[in-house]
Design goal:
The chain is an alpha+beta fold. It has helices spanning about 15-25, 65-80, 100-115, 130-135, 160-170, 215-220, 295-305, 355-374; strands spanning about 5-10, 35, 55, 90-100, 125-130, 145-155, 175, 180-190, 190-195, 200-210, 230-240, 250-255, 265-270, 275, 280, 315-325, 335, 345-350. Strands 3, 4, 5, 6, 11, 12, 13, 14, 15 and 16 form a 10-stranded mixed β-sheet that branches. Strands 1, 2, 7, 8, 9, 10, 17 and 18 form an 8-stranded mixed β-sheet that branches.
Length: about 375
């Protein structure tokens, strides 16, 4: 144990949340920190298996952390990262939420009002009619009645972004341990002792649990009754060949959101291909969250065809499945210090819009850390 590495802060989880937290701390001169990731590399799970959309912030329930950090996070993306010389690919896009009936139109009006409450500029949103939406893309379903246009969305290559943050953090002095799956945490005097399944050991004065779908398991290593409960939601996607871009525009088209999330979308990928998905499947075993099934893809094809009947959903070049970490107790983010032990902080239930929220979450976690240190 004499050569065991000791840190001020250990961050468990090498997704976009853990990485942005690490970079935020290092930029604020908290240098003796480490990142622990159970996989062979960072950004291999939820953080890179998504659409890459930086959402505007109109659909999160006002007053929630999701709403607050989505809008703040988008602004921070714009201020810090979305520059002409960015080291990752990104583009401005419009989002269109599509209404097919009167109930959908009610939802559009609700989303518009929510956007205002969440701090969006009213000039960035407008409800347009059938003729206007078909001018945008004449290949869309002719049965679309209205659409909510939001013009402040972005799209990024999420994997490139995460690796950019990782490289920047390493330049600032980040220490990291890959293939370090934490399976035991104990307190020794004033330090936490974290042990991996391979019997690797590190020590840290403070732990930040940013382990995604595994955050409840990590919490239960130190707490009897965590104040959040994680269920997994799997979303499956089709990726279509470049030749299907002729039926799409450089915009994102959504069905109205459901209780399961933002709904299936058709979106451009930055490499020229087209993304369709995701579906939403709850309570999937954690070891199956990246497994693609024909049943799930069948649903994606059905909804994709509803949005755009002309697109050829047989022109599939790839498929993928991503996981979502859902806090069952609130359906909101849980970002709190432990109520049972000292110097332990949870960043859990970070579902969509987690990518959009990540810079704001990192800033907030640093603020809370400094409060605890005082």
């Amino acid at each position: 144990m004499s050569d065991t590495k000791s840190y001020d802060v250990a961050i468990i989880g090498g997704g976009v949340i853990g990485l942005t937290i690490a970079k935020e701390f290092l930029e604020k001169n908290i240098k003796n920190i480490c990142l622990l990731e159970k996989n062979r590399d960072v950004m291999l799970e939820t953080s890179s298996h998504n659409s890459g959309v930086i959402h505007s912030g109109f659909d999160a329930t006002p007053g929630t952390l999701k709403a607050k950090f989505n809008v703040e996070g988008r602004h921070l993306f714009e201020q810090r990262y979305l520059k002409k010389d960015a080291k990752f690919h990104w583009e401005n896009i419009n989002s269109y939420i599509l209404a097919f009936d009167d109930e959908d139109i009610k939802e559009l009006n609700l989303l518009y009002e929510q956007g205002i409450k969440n701090g969006l500029n009213p000039k960035s949103m407008q409800i347009i009619d059938n003729k206007e939406i078909l001018k945008v893309n004449p290949y869309l379903n002719k049965k679309i009645i209205k659409a909510l246009l939001v013009n402040t969305s972005k799209i990024i290559d999420a994997h490139q972004f995460g690796n950019f943050i990782f490289e920047e953090a390493k330049k600032l002095g980040l220490k990291y341990h890959l293939n370090f799956k934490v399976n035991d945490i104990k307190k020794e005097k004033n330090e936490w002792v974290l042990k991996s399944e391979k019997d690797q050991i590190i020590k840290a004065k403070y732990i930040i649990n940013a382990s995604g779908v595994w955050s409840e398991e990590i919490a239960r290593l130190v707490e009897k009754n965590p104040l959040f409960k994680i269920k997994t939601r799997r979303g499956q996607y089709l990726i279509l060949d470049h030749d299907q871009r002729k039926y799409t525009t450089f915009d994102v088209f959504f069905l109205t959101p459901s209780k399961h999330g933002k709904g299936v979308i058709i979106a451009p990928l930055l490499d020229g291909r087209v993304l369709v998905g995701p579906n939403a499947e709850d309570n999937i075993p954690k070891n199956d969250i990246q497994i693609v099934t024909e049943k799930g893809l069948k649903h994606v094809r059905k909804i994709g065809k509803k949005i755009n009947p002309n697109i050829d959903l047989g022109r599939v070049v790839s498929v993928l499945a991503g996981s979502r970490s859902i806090n069952e107790l609130t359906n909101d983010y849980y970002i709190e210090k432990s109520k049972e032990v000292d110097n332990f902080f949870h960043v859990a239930g970070i579902q969509s819009p987690g990518l959009s929220s990540s810079p704001a979450i990192a800033r907030y976690v640093y603020k809370r850390y400094t409060e605890v240190k005082k």
